[in-house]
């Protein structure tokens, strides 16, 4: 066995950032194990036959307010500026999401002026307010608005996305990502830096992993080469004890042989369609909360600088996760329920007994991370746990 200092499971943001730091800052030998046949995890993108750059696992939009995140990622790519806008089909209208003052005026024209005045008085302009706050507000007009937004924007979308009604989930966590925006700003995000990698995410990841200290092995399942011996709390790689450090970003229940049962996830199915027209829809993404089996349609031509003559769209269908069923075997989202967190904690308590094992990432931590947050989390983990200790 080669003398690796680190073995990293997964080549998405968590794994690739840690590998890049170990190789370039600490000059350590790193092996990345990736079960897919490509790097970059869910960020993988490719050009389709129409010449459109497709994000294979759904649209990913880079944004951050953190200068250190922006500076770090800018080492590996040039950028294409892009401000994402989303509209939702509500009662035959297309209105901005997150719900904002424009949405209010389109959907509730008779009451819009009065409600707007109350919102500005209560919260102020350019403020973001969780829908739960609106629904519980003592002013009946605000609480009615909250209920309207909940029923039109959140209720059916949440049920489709998660396969359960909002009251069965940690709804506060879900809705916190898309609060009501007391503003006319139609952008989906308001961060200072909003860009896409000019040559795509895959090329950016190739540059991140270009150090010769990094070896990447594709199409390798971690549990076929790594063994976490819970009797000795030692890690074995291909039958030999590995005394270096393992960074694990995969599903922890899989790594520990489903000892406490499977952790539940939601999966997604994507259908890509090419249309012989300039554009298919008015914005990068259109949400369909109340009709159709799909939740949204994304049009990548809106997002990138390249403008081929045809356009390609991606239709997104939420579905049940089944690890043994092809097409349903990719775990995208941990399901936010208290009972699932309790089940995860059992796995975490076992993993924490391994002194040379670090869990990082959405699957390993059973926690939803936006792209900017996982970048920040990986960089901080490196700085706090490794930068000054090697």
Give descriptors for this structure.
390 residues; alpha+beta; Rossmann fold; FAD; UDP-GalPyranose_mutase_C; flavoprotein
Description:
With 390 residues, this protein is α+β, with helices and mostly antiparallel strands. Among the domains are: 141 residues, NAD(P)-binding Rossmann-like Domain (Rossmann fold, 3-Layer(aba) Sandwich), CATH 3.40.50; 85 residues, no CATH class. It is built from twelve helices and 22 strands. The strands form six sheets. A seven-stranded mixed sheet has the order 8-7-18-19-20-17-21. A five-stranded parallel sheet has the order 12-2-1-16-22, with helices on one face. α1 runs parallel beside α12. The longest helix is centred in the middle third of the chain and has 23 residues. The model has no long low-confidence stretch (mean pLDDT 95). InterPro entries: UDP-GALP_mutase, UDP-GalPyranose_mutase_C.
Terminal CA distance reads 22 Å
Strand content: 15-25%
- CATH domain class of the domain at 6-39 and 209-264 and 335-385: Alpha Beta
The level of helicity is 25-40%
Q: Mind summarizing the main beta sheet?
A: 7 strands, mixed
**Category by helix and strand content:** alpha+beta
- The average pLDDT is 95
**Topology-level CATH name of the domain at 6-39 and 209-264 and 335-385:** Rossmann fold
| Sequence stretches where pLDDT stays below 50 over 5 or more residues | none
Principal-axis shape equals globular
Supply Rg: 22 Å
Report strand order across the widest sheet.
8-7-18-19-20-17-21
Number of strands: 22
Output the CATH homologous superfamily of the domain at 6-39 and 209-264 and 335-385.
NAD(P)-binding Rossmann-like Domain
Summed up, the helix count is: 12
Would you identify the CATH architecture of the domain at 6-39 and 209-264 and 335-385? 3-Layer(aba) Sandwich
């Amino acid at each position: 066995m080669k003398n690796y200092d680190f073995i990293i499971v997964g080549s998405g943001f968590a794994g690739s950032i840690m590998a890049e730091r170990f190789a370039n800052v600490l000059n350590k030998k790193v092996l990345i194990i990736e079960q897919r046949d490509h790097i970059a995890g869910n960020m993988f993108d490719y050009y389709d036959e129409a010449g459109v750059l497709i994000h294979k696992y759904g649209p990913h939009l880079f944004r951050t307010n953190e200068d250190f995140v922006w500076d770090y990622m800018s080492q590996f790519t040039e950028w294409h500026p892009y401000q994402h806008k989303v509209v939702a089909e509500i009662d035959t209208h297309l209105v901005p999401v997150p719900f904002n003052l424009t949405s209010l005026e389109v959907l509730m024209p008779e009451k819009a002026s009065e409600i707007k005045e109350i919102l500005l008085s209560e919260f102020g302009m350019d403020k973001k307010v969780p829908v739960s706050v609106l629904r519980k507000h003592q002013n009946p007009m605000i609480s009615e608005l909250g209920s309207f937004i909940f029923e039109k924007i959140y209720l059916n979308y949440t049920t489709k996305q998660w396969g359960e009604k909002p009251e069965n989930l940690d709804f506060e966590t879900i809705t916190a990502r898309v609060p009501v925006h007391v503003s006319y700003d139609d952008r989906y995000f308001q961060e200072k830096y909003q860009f896409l990698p000019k040559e795509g995410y895959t090329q950016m990841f190739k540059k991140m992993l270009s150090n010769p200290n990094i070896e990447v092995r594709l199409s390798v399942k971690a549990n076929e080469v790594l063994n976490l011996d819970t009797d000795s709390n030692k890690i074995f790689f291909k039958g030999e004890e590995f005394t270096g450090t393992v960074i694990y970003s995969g599903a922890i229940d899989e790594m520990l042989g489903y000892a406490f049962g499977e952790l539940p996830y939601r999966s997604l199915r994507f259908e890509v369609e090419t249309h012989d027209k300039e554009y298919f829809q008015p914005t990068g993404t259109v949400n369909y909360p109340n009709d159709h089996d799909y939740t949204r349609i994304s049009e990548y031509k809106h997002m990138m600088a390249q403008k081929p003559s045809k356009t390609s769209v991606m239709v997104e269908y939420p579905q049940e996760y089944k690890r043994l069923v092809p097409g349903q075997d990719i775990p995208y989202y941990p399901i936010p329920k208290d009972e699932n967190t309790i089940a995860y904690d059992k796995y975490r308590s076992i993993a924490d007994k391994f002194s040379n094992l670090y869990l990082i990432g959405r699957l390993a931590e059973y926690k939803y991370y936006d792209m900017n947050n996982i970048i920040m989390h990986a960089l901080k983990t490196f700085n706090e746990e490794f930068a000054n200790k090697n």
